[in-house]
Amino acid sequence: MKILNFGSLNIDLVYSLDHIVKPGETISADSMNKFVGGKGLNQSIALANAGVSVYHAGCVGKDGSMLTDFMKSAGVDLSYINVVDEPTGQAIIQVDKSGENCIVLFAGANHALTADYVDRVLSNFNKGDYIVLQNEINNLEYIINRAAEKGMKIFLNPAPFTENIRSIGLEKIYCLIVNEIEAEGLSGENGTEGFKRFLSESYPELRAVITLGKKGSVYLCGDSVLTQTAFPAKAVDTTAAGDTFVGFFIAEISRGKSPEEALKTASLASSITVSRQGAAPSIPKLSEVLDPKP
Question: How far apart are CA 138 and CA 229, in angstroms?
Answer without folding.
Answer: 34
